[in-house]
Every structure is written in structure tokens, then in C-alpha cells.
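FAQ: What does a ligand-bound record look like?

Like this one, built around flavin mononucleotide:
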Amino acid sequence: MPIESEVLRSVLGNFCTGVTVITAFDGDQPYGFACQSVTSLSLEPPFVSFCPAKTSSSWPKMRQAGKICINVLSEDQLDVCQRFASRGGNKFEGAQWEHGANGAPSLAGSLARIEADVEVEHEAGDHTIVIARVTHLEVHREVPPLLFFRGKFGSFVPAQPAGV
Ligand SMILES: Cc1cc2nc3c(=O)[nH]c(=O)nc-3n(C[C@H](O)[C@H](O)[C@H](O)COP(=O)(O)O)c2cc1C
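The answer part, i.e. the structure of the complex:
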């Protein structure tokens, strides 16, 4: 029986993730989009992966730039997530950012930043799997992350071990 997209979306929404904004600077313009499909892929060599939708208008420009920054969002950055989950317009207007070590935009207030070079892309249905080599990374704040679960945003609460 075929799996309906809505069922797929709804059940996979039970897999809670963090939220990032992936950015790049192409020519003279910054680009970015909100992205949850980030994975720590390999330690040796240091690879991360993420999956832009084929419909992404930013990714074709960012791919050309080749150097990206994965900005891991803090719990107080819901507005940043929503800004970068939109389409069209200048998403960076009024946003606080600076060029990172590789030139890609580093967003102020992010929890951590991972800079990487796009290494290879694989076609995968209506998305593309991007594998990128990490070139620089740092933690910026000691605050909880922004989380995404069942279509809603939230924060992290450490679990209590049994018997405590
Ligand atoms: C929490 C969250 C996670 C998202 N994860 C992804 C993702 O992994 N891949 C993707 O292509 N879009 C993802 N999106 C949607 C894009 O951010 C959205 O489609 C954006 O408008 C694309 O902008 P663009 O056309 O400038 O690329 C996510 C959105 C939200 C709110």
C-alpha cells in the first residue's frame, strides 16, 4: 500500500530534532534556510550531511558558493527560525550576523556554528543529500537548543535517571 505524504510527515515528526539555519555567501549576497535534516555523519574524515528540498530557492546559490555555515539555533531563536523558513525577500534584512572564518554568515545568538565545504551531493527523491567536510566549528553559548517535535517548537529538559 502506498505511504501517504501526510502520514509520513506526521509519524516522522515524532523524531525530535534540533533546528539549524544553513547559510552561505554567494558573490555579494547572503543566503540561508531553516533546516532540521542535519546529521553528524563521519568523524574521520569529518563529514556532516543535510537535505535541501528540490524546491529550495536558496540552495542553488549556496551550492555555487560551496562554503557553508550550519548555525545551530538556541531556544530563544524561534524568530530566527521563522525568518529563515520563509521564502523570498531578504531574509537577512535586520538580522544580526557576521562573516565566519570561511566567509559564510554566522548568525548572532546561535548555540554553535559548524563551517564546512560542500563535498558531494546525492539525488534522493524530492530532496538532495549533501555531504560537507567540516573545516571549523565552535560552541558559542551555554543555553538550551531550539527543538522541533510534532510540528511544534520547544526547549530541552534533561531527563531524571530512574530512582533519583
Ligand atoms: C523546523 C524546520 C525544519 C526545516 N527543515 C528543512 C530541511 O531539512 N530541508 C529543507 O529543504 N527545508 C527545511 N525546512 C523548510 C525551509 O526552511 C523552507 O522551505 C524555506 O522556505 C526554504 O527557503 P528557500 O526557498 O530560501 O531555500 C524546514 C523548516 C522548518 C520550520
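Follow-up question: can I read anything off the structure? Yes, for example: Residues 17-152 form a domain with the Pnp Oxidase; Chain A fold (CATH 2.30.110.10).
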